[in-house]
Specification:
This protein is of the alpha+beta class and about 90 residues long. About 20% of the residues lie in helices and about 25% in strands. About 25% of the residues are buried.
Length: about 90
Amino acid sequence: MARLIKAIGGEVEITPENGKSFGLEEAQNNVGGYIQILPLDDENVMIMDEEGKLKERLFNVTATKIAYRYNAIFPGDYIVGDVIICKNDEI
């Protein structure tokens, strides 16, 4: 099961519309723009809005902590906007 982590706080379990994997449009609708995929480990990815910082999206504390936990972003970097965390085979 995938999770949508909201920038305003909280998270929601989400399921792809087709029951298997998120299509491009579906992923874009969830994160609010063109997608960027950030590998977390061998099994999981974080999907975010590629232009989130340019759009001045809200800082996502939870997603940033998760990215740091997996060493997926450089020190000092951060995640903005709503993100999806799912298995590699769900995208």
